[in-house]
Every structure is written in C-alpha cells, then in structure tokens.
Design goal:
Length: about 280
C-alpha cells in the first residue's frame, strides 16, 4: 500500500509540473479581427478581398477600413501584398474621388491591412460609390472593383465648403467614437480638393470649436481646446468638453497658417450657429 501511494504521488507531481512549464513557453494567439465585422467581399478570378469595419458598415464621413486578401485556390490569406485603393463617386455629370490614406500592413506577420477613407457625400438612387483595389503579390499585379454601400450618416459627420481663399475643404469628425460626459480627446481630419481625384491633408491650420446644445438653450461648455495638427498622424487634435448627454452641435471655424478665418463664425446671441459644424449624440 505504501509503495502504491508513493507511485501515485510521484505521477501526480510529474503531471502538475508539465503544464506550468509549457504554459510559460506558449504565446497566446492574436485575434486580428477583434472588434471588427466583415461588411463586404470583393472578388476577382484569383482572390476574395474581405472588407472590415468596427461598426460593420460604411457611412458618409470618416471610415477606418481593414481588409484581408484570400487566395481562392489555397484558402490562405496573403501576408506579403502591397495594396492601394481608389474610391470613386459616380454622379450623373461627373466622377470624383475623396480623401483617403494609404493602405498599410497592421502587423508584420499578420494578414490584415488597414487605411481610411472619407466619403464626403452619400449614395442616392442614381449616384453611387465603388472601390477599386490594386495590389501586387510576389511581383504579380491584381485588381478588383465593386460597388460599395455608403448611406447618409444620421448626424453631420463631415462638412464640405469653399473657404474665403476659393479652396474647397472637407472637414471630417473622427473621434471620440464613444463620447462621455467629460473632457474628451477630439480628432478631426482637414483636407482640401486639389482636383477631382486628389484630396490631400491640409497642413498647419487650426480648427476652433464651440460645442453647443441647441435643444437646451444653445448652452456651451467650458475648457474646450481648439484643434491643432499633430506631426505624427497629420490629423487635428484638441479637447471637447461635454457636460451632459444629448445632441451636440460642434460649431467650427477653420483658420489658415496665418490665423485668418477661412470659414465659420463665432457664436453670439445674434449668431447661434456657425455655417460649418459637426454633430454628435450620445
């Protein structure tokens, strides 16, 4: 009996020892698609391109879009592609593009690629957006194009206007995704129209903000910080003070590098809203 008990205890000790050793050496798998939802597949004869977004859909305004490229024959996802894209709005009398970033690999060993596109106008019954994706893999070039759904946003998430310098600008709301009753970090993109196909980021401007609640006597909030451009991401960052839940109109003024107001008005008793603004509701 003593011999059997000693053997049982020895076996148990070995079993308990092995998991602790193996768990230290194992690296948890990273889920590339965490918090992302697939909303579209674009195909050609060789690949299926899967498109993902946090909300599972696109909308008028700023959209962060991720994609994976799946080989139809092997079922594997490509890890070494070079990707670019061209969004096009097909209107009755013209075709134009919109502000867009490059498409970059998210992680070196992953399969996910990411960028952003600002759709300045929504689709309608006769006008629509499509997305052309060009990519190369091991020196071979491929392309795929498909119509995409870009419905109007429920709130004003992007505004397009001509400044006093006769340049057409696009200002798009980016963050916060989940605003709170607090002093929020706010991010906005500012772009200009160079041509029907070119909409680069505007450098060294300033965006003044004056958030108001139209349904609550148009009251404002304290401690807002106007937006200036970051050298890291080229976007405009500031602080947005929200003192209660509800619909907020973020009144804007766009100033150039010389602090000249190109568009937008200061809010007064006689001027309750700026001609350019963005909206959030939470």
């Amino acid at each position: 009996m003593k011999f059997q008990l000693k053997n049982i205890l020895a076996v148990m000790a070995v079993i308990l020892a092995f998991p602790s050793c193996s768990s230290d050496s194992e690296t948890p798998a990273v889920n590339e698609l965490a918090e992302l939802t697939k909303f579209k597949e674009i195909t050609n004869t060789t690949h299926t391109i899967e498109l993902y977004a946090h909300s599972g859909a696109l909308e008028q305004g700023y959209n962060e879009i991720s994609l994976r490229i799946k080989d139809k024959t092997s079922g594997n996802y490509e890890k070494n592609a070079t990707v670019s894209w061209i969004p096009l709005m097909h209107m009755t009398m013209m075709t134009h593009s919109c502000p867009k970033s490059g498409v970059e690999k998210v992680t070196a060993d992953g399969t996910l690629y990411k960028g952003n596109i600002v759709f300045q106008m929504p689709q309608n019954a006769t006008e629509y957006w499509d997305l052309k994706i060009d990519y190369t893999i091991n020196g071979a070039a491929y392309t795929a194009t498909s119509v995409i759904d870009v419905p109007a946003s429920a709130k004003q998430r992007v505004t397009t206007f001509t400044g006093s310098d006769n340049v057409k600008y696009i200002v798009a709301y980016i963050e916060p995704h989940h605003p709170k009753v607090a002093l929020n970090d706010i991010t906005i993109g500012v772009y200009k129209m160079e041509s029907m196909m070119s909409f680069p980021v505007v450098d060294n401007f300033k965006v003044k903000i004056d958030p108001r609640m139209p349904s609550m006597g148009n009251h404002g909030s304290p401690n807002n910080v106007d937006l200036t451009q970051s050298t890291l991401d080229k976007l405009y960052h500031g602080k947005l003070s929200l003192t209660m839940t509800g619909l907020w109109k973020i009144n804007l003024q766009l100033l150039n590098a010389s602090n000249v107001v190109l568009k937008g008005e200061s809010i007064t008793d006689l001027v309750p809203a700026s001609s350019i603004y963005l909206e959030i509701e939470f």
